[in-house]
Amino acid sequence: MATSSAASAANNFSRVATLPNKTPISIRAWVRRNADRGNYSGFAALNKLGDELMYCGTDVDGETLLAYAGSTGGGPTGNTAVSDSLWHHIVYTYDGVDVKVYVDGSLVYTGATAQDAAAAISFTLLTTNFGSWWDGDIEAVAVWEQTLDAAEVLADMSYLEQQMTTDLWAFWPLSTGVDITDASGNRRDLTIVGTPTTVAGSGTPYAPPAPGVGDYRGFFARAY
User: Fold this and answer.
1) Would you say 58 and 40 are in contact if contact means Cβ atoms under 8 Å apart?
2) Most CB within 10 Å of its CB: which of 2, 49, 104, 130?
3) Helix, strand, or coil (residue 31)
4) How far apart are CA 125 and CA 57, in angstroms?
5) How do beta strands 65-69 and 2-4 pair?
6) Is residue 74 classed as helix, strand or coil in its secondary structure?
7) 98, 99, 101, 107: CA torsion to nearest 10
8) Which of 96, 143, 95, 144 is CA-nearest to residue 116?
9) Which of 192, 100, 87 has its CA nearest to residue 148?
10) pLDDT in 10s for each residue of the chain, 224 residues
11) What is the Cα–Cα distance from 3 to 201, expressed in whole angstroms?
12) Residue 37 pLDDT
């Protein structure tokens, strides 16, 4: 199962915390976009006092993924749309110089950008940035204080549960509309704004099967 914004800009999650160092950073999510709201549409964002530290979502055309860090940004062109009402695996990374965006395991954008030095940030999912909002669904969000490389991004696609544990800052399964738990053990639970709802998820398993066993291991023990 997964979380949905339930067709309302007021239904989102947020978490205010302090990162010891916000660069490097990687943000991964499984998302499904259901409708175009005619403006920028963000599914995740890092903010400080109204400044965009990292923006993950679509441009005003409702099709192109956009990457922002600080006051500069850009986005990939070509066939990188996520407005087809299908689930997509999206990863944003920032190493202090370049923002990179991966869609379903493929690198679709690299752009140099700057990010002001600051520590206190707000992390928001199903955001209401730029006067618009993400009309869709989200699950299995992970944040690392490191940049995933291309091979790690590709490997991460196979399972909802994050497979990289080094420098993991938080992992939110978002298995229901009221699932606020940080399953990484770092106690960075989310807060709920509005009334997000529960929808069917992507169907991706949570963790690799144990050798010779039909169960899945990890944060969630599920028999198949």
Assistant:
1) yes
2) 2
3) strand
4) 11
5) unpaired
6) strand
7) 0
8) 96
9) 100
10) 999 987 788 888 887 776 666 678 899 999 998 877 767 788 888 776 656 677 788 776 665 666 555 445 555 554 456 777 889 999 988 888 888 889 899 898 887 776 655 545 778 888 775 566 888 899 999 999 899 999 999 999 999 998 888 899 999 999 999 999 999 989 899 999 889 999 999 999 988 766 554 443 444 433 33
11) 8
12) 73
- CB-based contacts of 118, cutoff 8 Å, min separation 6: 22, 48, 51, 53
Which residues contact residue 201 at a Cβ distance below 8 angstroms, ignoring those fewer than 6 apart?
1, 2, 30, 87, 137, 139, 160, 175
Residues 6+ apart with CB under 8 A from 115: 22, 23, 53, 54, 69, 70, 94, 96
Tell the burial category of 151 from Cβ atoms under 10 Å away from its Cβ (0-12, 13-18, 19+): exposed
Those residues whose C-beta lies under 8 Å from the C-beta of residue 212, and which sit 6 or more positions away, are none
CA distance 124 to 221: 28
**What residues have CB less than 8 Å from 86, skipping those under 6 apart?**
32
Element (H, E) at 41: strand 41-48
